[in-house]
Write a structure and sequence with these properties.
By secondary structure, the chain is an alpha+beta fold. The protein contains four helices and eight strands, in the order E-H-E-E-H-E-E-H-E-E-H-E. It has two domains: 67 residues, Alpha-Beta Plaits; 86 residues, Alpha-Beta Plaits.
Length: 164
C-alpha cells in the first residue's frame, strides 16, 4: 500500500511581497492625504519585512491598511505581518518595523499536531524543524486534513507543499 504525504509550512512568497511593496509605494505617492508628509514604506534588512514611516500612529495605520489591501488583492494572507513590535515616535515622525513571519515555531507545530491527533486520527504527523509532515495511506484523508486546517483560524499563515 502506498503512503501519501504533504508538508505544512508557514512562509511567504517573496515575489508577491515585492509586488505588494511596489504597489504600496505607488499608492502612497499618489494619495493626496500623504502629500508633504513623511509617509512611506521601506524594506527591512534583506527584504525580511517592511518599515513603515508616518507623521503619527494614525498615518502608519493608514499605510498598513494599504499593505493589507495589496496583500488581499494578491491573494496573500495578512497574517504574515508580525505586528508585535511597537511603533517608535521621534523627530515628529513615527516608524514601525513589521517583520514577516516565517517558519513554524515549535509551539505552533505542536498546536497543529495536537489538533490533527484529536480530529484526524487516521493520519500521522511528524514535526520536522519548522514544518510538519502529514502522512496517510489515503489521499482523501490528506485532503480532509487540508480542509480542516484551512477552516481553522491560526494567527500565522499556513501553506501546504510537497503533496505526494
Amino acid at each position: 500500500m502506498a503512503t501519501f504525504s504533504f508538508d505544512i509550512v508557514s512562509d511567504y512568497d517573496k515575489a508577491e511581497m515585492n509586488n505588494v511593496f511596489a504597489g504600496t509605494e505607488r499608492e502612497i505617492g499618489t494619495r493626496y492625504d500623504f502629500k508633504g508628509t513623511p509617509a512611506g514604506i521601506e524594506w527591512l534588512d534583506d527584504k525580511k519585512g517592511f518599515k513603515i514611516t508616518g507623521a503619527g500612529q494614525w498615518q502608519c495605520d493608514a499605510v498598513l491598511d494599504i499593505v493589507r489591501k495589496k496583500l488581499a488583492t494578491r491573494e496573500q494572507s495578512s497574517k504574515v505581518l508580525n505586528l508585535d513590535k511597537t511603533p517608535v515616535e521621534s523627530n515628529l515622525k513615527t516608524t514601525w518595523d513589521i517583520p514577516f513571519k516565517q517558519g513554524l515555531s515549535q509551539d505552533d507545530a505542536k498546536k497543529i499536531t495536537k489538533q490533527l491527533r484529536e480530529e484526524a486520527p487516521k493520519v500521522k504527523t511528524q514535526i520536522q524543524g519548522d514544518m510538519v509532515r502529514v502522512t496517510s495511506g489515503s489521499k482523501n484523508d490528506l485532503q480532509d486534513v487540508i480542509a480542516l486546517l484551512k477552516s481553522t483560524d491560526y494567527e500565522f499563515p499556513l501553506q501546504f507543499i510537497n503533496y505526494r
